[in-house]
Q: What sequence folds into this?
């Protein structure tokens, strides 16, 4: 999902999204790694290659691709990753470095289900949350007249539908 700075404690995290489970895994990273990831996501190119650019270029020069990054363990709040290469090699890596390289090579970042279950936090759709809050507010202030008025239910203070017909009836 990207790099974010948490307001409450000023930590920088990279967020991995598990869209199927609607969960995000926040991984605390350093400022340099955060910058490297954000720059690559934004498509910014530096005049000289940064470390992760050099690693990408080195892999290309020896004819090896980064197939994927796997976040394989979580121990004491530290995430462990492996680079899975096209030649069958698996290399131990810091999660932040692995993600920075994956962004540069358009390689997928995978996270084990166990880690998502332990470290994942629910992703909240802000607009959906606002709509639920508006509906709850409507229910808190609704009266019987809101449901018996011509035109059916409507938000308190809002005029009923112009045609006076319920929303599901034919025009």
A:
């Amino acid at each position: 999902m990207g790099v974010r700075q948490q307001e409450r404690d000023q930590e920088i995290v990279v967020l991995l999204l598990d869209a199927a489970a609607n969960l995000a895994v926040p991984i605390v990273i350093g400022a340099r790694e955060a910058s490297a990831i954000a720059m690559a996501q934004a498509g910014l190119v530096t005049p000289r290659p940064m470390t992760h650019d050099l690693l990408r270029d080195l892999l290309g020069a020896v004819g090896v691709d980064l197939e994927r990054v796997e976040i394989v363990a979580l121990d004491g709040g530290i995430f462990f990753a492996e680079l899975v290469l096209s030649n069958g090699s698996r290399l131990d890596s810091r999660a932040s470095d692995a993600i920075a390289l994956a962004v540069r090579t358009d390689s997928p970042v995978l996270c084990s289900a166990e880690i998502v279950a332990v470290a994942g936090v629910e992703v909240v759709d802000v607009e959906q949350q606002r709509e639920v809050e508006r509906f709850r507010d409507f229910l808190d202030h609704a009266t019987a007249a809101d449901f018996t008025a011509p035109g059916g239910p409507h938000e308190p203070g809002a005029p009923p539908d112009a045609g006076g017909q319920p929303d599901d009836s034919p025009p």
Remarks:
- Residues 126-141 form the longest helix (16 residues).
- The two ends are 44 Å apart (CA to CA).
